[in-house]
Amino acid sequence: MNYDRVLVRYGELSTKGRNRSLFTNKLKKSIMHALREFPNIRLQVRHDRLFIHLKGTPFEEVKEPLKQVFGIQSFSPVVRTEQNIEEIQAAALELVRKNFSKGKTFKVSARRSDKQFELDTNGINQAVGGYVLQRMEGLTVDVKNPDINLLVEVRKEGVYLSCEKYPGATGLPAGTSGKAMLLLSGGIDSPVAGYMMMKRGVEIEAIHFHSPPYTSERAKQKVLDLAEKLTAFGAKMKVHVVPFTAIQQKIQEKVPSGYTMTSTRRAMMEIADEIRRKQGALALVTGESLGQVASQTLESMLAINAVTPTPILRPLIAMDKLDIIEIAQQIGTHDISILPYEDCCTIFTPAAPKTRPKLEKVQQYESSVNFEELIKEAIENTEVIQLPEEKAASEFSELL
Ligand code: ATP
Ligand code: MG
After folding, report:
1. Which one of 124, 143, 167 terminates a domain?
2. Mutate which of 181, 182, 183 to test ligand 1's pocket (most atoms within 8 Å of Cβ)?
């Protein structure tokens, strides 16, 4: 008897009432996306559990991709039996035999969601544990820290057994919290900010400001590579690449150097907000962290936020750089982020940006420039790229 399906446990708190079907539908979509290389698999939702029918795909191959799916608390490869204690005992013995080697300890952890079943959890633990122990020489019980923890879950539609349990990524499934636009630079921080919002169920579209010829094609490719990494945690992602050269040049020309950074960020926000509106997204996301660089002060944020009432989410605001780097390493964006290709801000960064910009001043400097025309033009010439550039998840069939 080989594991032929995966039992997926998901958080119950967030799945009450009307939210439940939104949650499970999005979770199914995320799983199909994560397992898109295995078109044989089929999904089945059963009340508070989701089953993945492997249809011949080895569990080991789906294990790592599943660990990246938000909304999963934990998962186990399982075998199924009917609600019949002899069948359960036989399957249990076979599973423990497979996992046993000399000196290993064992326990049974039963769970019963079908209260009609003839035995309660203690009864199941004893009936199954006793049966296995009698037939396996050298196997001993350790209820605190067993080498083999045999899970037996009795449900209305059948009984599921496993000796394995893996932690999921937790969080909420992609798209259950609506959509936001991520201002994605080539740096370390903004991909991490995107990841953190995705973990809370936010669908992300990325916006990147590109200033050719000051920034190279490779700098743009780097951002696309970062965005592609993030798609591993959700589903597809659009990247809007905005031509930003003319605006940056205009700012250099018209705004005193201490304020060019503030003005640049304000122009970015205005453009991002307009694209957000067109795409039906609800918020903007940046990788800013308080005090990390001169332009990331509260005064600066006040001046930047003044261009729009749209929520600007800054999930890294209270995090230390080292902690951000650690997440970047875990999610696989760090090594791309540290590649040397410069983004538009590095090149235009003034020697001494104002750490406490005054909103009235920046407004006054900007009033002599007609940004509106330039902003409109930048939005019109924005290039939209869809990632990943392979088969969309929705092309796969599923079993309901
Ligand atoms: P990151 O590591 O994300 O580049 P940073 O520490 O370099 O951040 P800044 O350069 O001050 O910080 O940028 C602050 C935020 O502004 C970034 O996290 C990102 O969200 C946004 N941003 C900066 N440059 C760009 C760009 N070229 N395109 C899109 N967003 C950008
Ligand atoms: Mg940067």
Report:
1. 167
2. 183
Is 0.85 surpassed by the pTM of this model?
yes
Instruction: Look up the domain containing 367 and give its range.
Output: 179-387
Q: Please, where are the H alpha helices in 35-120?
A: 59-66, 85-99
The verdict on 367 and 299 lying in the same domain is: yes
In tens, the pLDDT along 205-215 reads 999 999 999 99
Return phi, psi of residue 172, to 5°.
-120, 150
| Ligand 1 proximal residues by C-beta, below 6 Å | 183-185, 187-190, 207-209, 286-288, 292-293, 295-296, 343-345
Distances (CA, A) of 383 to 38, 123, 227, 346: 32, 63, 15, 22
Give the pLDDT of residue 22.
87
Report every protein residue that has its C-beta within 5 angstroms of ion ligand 2: 185, 187
Measured CA distances, 254 to 102, 259, 299, 300, 375 (Å): 78, 10, 22, 19, 16
Angle between helices 245-254 and 257-279 (to 10 degrees): 150
Q: Which residue owns the Cα nearest ligand 1 atom 23?
A: 185
Residues 185, 215: contact at Cβ < 8 Å?
no
Give, using CA atoms, the residue closest to atom 17 of ligand 1: 287
Pick out the chain residues at pLDDT < 70.
12-18, 344-347, 389-400
Task: Give 395's DSSP letter.
Answer: G
- Ligand 1 atom with the smallest distance to the CA of 191 is 3
State the DSSP string of 117-132.
SSS-HHHHHHHHHHHH
Q: Domain check: are 129 and 188 in the same one? A: no
**How confident is the model at residue 353, as a pLDDT?**
86
For residues 237 and 94, membership in a common domain is answered with no
